[in-house]
Queue: 2 jobs
Job 1
Amino acid sequence: MELNDKQKEIVQVAEKLFAEYGFDGTSVRLIAKEAGINIAMISYYFGSKEKLLEHMVVHRMSGFKVNLDEIIAQDDRSYHDRLNEIVALYVKRIHKNNRIYKIVHNELTNNARSLTFEHYLSQKKKNLDSVTKFIEAGQKAHVFKKHIEIPLLIPSILGTYFHFHYNQRFYEESYGLNTPESKELFIETTLTKHIQKMLNALITYED
Amino acid sequence: MELNDKQKEIVQVAEKLFAEYGFDGTSVRLIAKEAGINIAMISYYFGSKEKLLEHMVVHRMSGFKVNLDEIIAQDDRSYHDRLNEIVALYVKRIHKNNRIYKIVHNELTNNARSLTFEHYLSQKKKNLDSVTKFIEAGQKAHVFKKHIEIPLLIPSILGTYFHFHYNQRFYEESYGLNTPESKELFIETTLTKHIQKMLNALITYED
DNA sequence: TTAAATTAAACAAACGTTTAATTTTGTGCG
DNA sequence: CGCACAAAATTAAACGTTTGTTTAATTTAA
């Protein structure tokens, strides 16, 4: 499905509002108003409010695996080096799209909607396969330790970011992140480094 | 504010529904129906739907610090030993109350509501203070390494759990967690151990 | 007999979607 | 280029529901 400029505007506005006020908390009237269009256009273009959400998710979650596999494929670099870059990539991507992930998290644990987000889940599966192959190669090369719960590595990366994100009001105060710039810098440096160190420690040292 | 049995029933039902269908997705009519009361009783007892939520959060988030400090105070046990129990306590508590935390996560990053959750934030601050003192004592005893981002430890513990929780549909398939019992067991053992190992590695080994 | 608890009904407001009419745009032809 | 016609885009209005809250009357309990 190709999107014209007006449709892109709707998707963009809707994404912001859904994350800000929740899916149920955002009315099609508000979306229309913010996007400067008539309310009927949402049904006209996307069929319904729910389908607009589905469409949004599918189109936001593509291209990640390509970046991931690019890093993994660079076998002239050390395993730790690549691992650090994988972590940085995950954090960067999830931070950029944190609004859409908030919606997905909500809807995946929401019994009211029939949304399955099959695209999201299959994408996640493929990403895990790539990461698994990389880690197992590192284990075979005796760089990474033997017993690692590989499927739980990504929850530790993304979960750390998201718990910071969901409780940002708390951590902004703890770390004195008063401006948006200082917050961005914190995520790029301190938070990312923390997660990198954590993963390196976890998959390197035997207990 | 003391609660009679009927009020407790309302709070209990509302918590379940809010987490399941979201705050906006849950109508007072549904709460009333599930709790077996008249819709007017919600306003009668709590004032409004929003105040019911506030009340819910305050009453669910107490008592944790006591448990936390009890573990820390046992200075006959090793630092690693106590750290593992702290992690287990965090996971256990958060898992037990994951529904209320989902609501808080949502509302804290929701601009529509004016809810501040001051009780939640101050509680979190006190917990962090306790953890910080414990970690710093461990550093002084040369058991833990020097450079640790202490405020980010809790996001790593709870974030790992929550990312697993929010994507449970995915991990249920990955790990074959078909029954509620197997899922409970997984959280209690594999997931908890993964987080424990991760934190031990992180705060022990210098890079 | 007084206060608290409970009820059904009504309230206005907001919801997502559809309708039918109108305007804008695109295309083929002379 | 200019006209005619069809398709697409856009609009205001209306649709029937559902929303949270309040009212006023009634029942229950102290």
Note: The first helix of chain B runs from residue 5 to 21.
Job 2
Amino acid sequence: MSKRVGIRDVAAAAGVSLTTVSHALSGAGQLSDATRERVRSVAADLNYAPNRLASGLRSKRSQIIGFVSDEISTTPYAGRVLLGAQEAAAKNDWVLMIVNTSADPRFEGRSIEALLQHRVDGIIYARMYHQTVAVPEALVGVPTVLLDASTGNDHISSVVPDEEGAARTAVEHLIAAGHRRIGYLSNVDDIPATRGRLDGYRATLRAHGIEVDETLITASDSTTASARAAAALLLDRSDRPTALFCFNDRIAMGAYQAAQTRGLRIPDDLSIVSIDNFEILADAMLPGLDSVALPHYEMGQWAIERLALELQADGDDDDAPAPQQIRMHCPLVTRQSVGPPPH
Amino acid sequence: MSKRVGIRDVAAAAGVSLTTVSHALSGAGQLSDATRERVRSVAADLNYAPNRLASGLRSKRSQIIGFVSDEISTTPYAGRVLLGAQEAAAKNDWVLMIVNTSADPRFEGRSIEALLQHRVDGIIYARMYHQTVAVPEALVGVPTVLLDASTGNDHISSVVPDEEGAARTAVEHLIAAGHRRIGYLSNVDDIPATRGRLDGYRATLRAHGIEVDETLITASDSTTASARAAAALLLDRSDRPTALFCFNDRIAMGAYQAAQTRGLRIPDDLSIVSIDNFEILADAMLPGLDSVALPHYEMGQWAIERLALELQADGDDDDAPAPQQIRMHCPLVTRQSVGPPPH
DNA sequence: TGCAAACTTGCAAACGCTTGCAGCCAGACA
DNA sequence: TGTCTGGCTGCAAGCGTTTGCAAGTTTGCA
């Protein structure tokens, strides 16, 4: 491999100074269009690739965004977030440096330390299941946005799914199909999603003049076995619900199995809707599962764009934009698991 | 935030020169244990975090490994690979810089270019479904290892699952349970896995003295609908197989559905085994699916370790280790989908 | 024709670290 | 006592960019 071409080679070839090349390439300074064009084409010809270590060192902008997540390997959630983040990052000429902490504080500390040593320009601190978190101390002073996580306060930007809205969308989908007797298979973890979706479920029923029957609410952990048992409780009643709203797709899968065991056909005898739109599951189920999508891709994208905004203002210091906390809309994806109630 | 502490602050505080601090921290040079210890504790007290942009610039080792993948968002495969890679990387004090190419050559080119600008020390070029690839030209001269992908030649290290072995493991699992009439639901893509698993299926049957009945082999794409249809072909025969070996878990899901529709119980009437061990699916299915695991975590780990080996020798140049291509063993994970054949 | 204003371009000093090489100091040996 | 040797430590020169500032060149206008 021939020696790597540096900015001085470009300068020599174009017959200008280092400064001019730098200006031409970065768009800074005042250059005549002619010069700029010439330098650029020479650089392209020479296949010049700036050394970002050097430019980062000097300019104090590494063009690297750190992405720290607690979980990355059991679901495609992180992948979708990463995809959104990455594509948005590319637009800013940023690249992502990611670490998985496995929710281990010791490891998280070391990982963040590593990112900081690499002088990342900002950090996306992500959780894969909407959680309330405390931002690690090492992160104070570092531009950070929280993803699928929020703190109690409003000192830092964050994006989470609109849990209540998602539940509303799901339940209204059922109501629109004619259902009035709608059971809810909740989950048991103590996370914001649990309460948010439950609240959404109750509020939506009431908003449509349906009295909330608390005995129609049951909970399970996210294993199908547990969900099956929870669904059984509801389906074995003589006054069983005509539709089930499930906390997530895995629980919906348990509900499917419970229905199947009892010879109940979906959606003829029982309609089911859930939240997640875990595509590889929802598509594979028979019939396809109607599910409200958690907007992972969009959250990743938003987080980066938000970071871009805050970093941009960072130079001008004081007029930094106030942190923003947003709840993102969750759209419904319909397949074939919802139909009118049996009469 | 107080001004960032640099190596000179440490030097001043410890009463030694920059050189000594650098040596003490990196373990290079000849230092008395006393000095080394002292410097280290001072550095720790000051909370010194070396600037990797600077050290990378000078030493020409960025401590960053690039990870380029074609697919990252629809399955947890990439996540598992990343986890393995990341944990191995941390041991070498490396960090991962990740790009997703969406299999778009233009975008791939730009992404690799970005990694190169950041002066990554090496690259893991990953595909999420064992494929034959041509290594992008931009990568020549850059230490690279292929993951879940291979070229025709042996110029570059690579790791792929042992497809034939995986098929053998699956089929022998069925044979061990007593099955002799074993159908195969293959896939239709033209990738090494297709041929490898098919060869493994045939070879294993023969090795056990079972004649291969080509009419028991059928194929579908990886949608459950298509798999359902393919399974139906086999299950509707009067001499239907007592067991089904499926190309992957999604196809197995289709097979489950076809069985269900026909009132065939698993594993009593029909045994099913597949390859993937896509846990979130295999665990959720009823009954749990016996599946041969694709060793994603281990492949990620191996790729990094291999890169470490090749980079280490890179200084000594000529005695660089010869590239190594390995096929990784795939272990069987049993659940409840295989039993003895009905008599 | 002369001079300021407006453009262009280049100089040279960092950025924070690593590293080849030289210097220093003890103790050992003659 | 003088000269070596070998173990420790420090000097200073970069690594490849960016950027504050200054210098040089046009252009416009009186």
Note: Chain A touches chain B through 61 residues (CB under 8 Å).
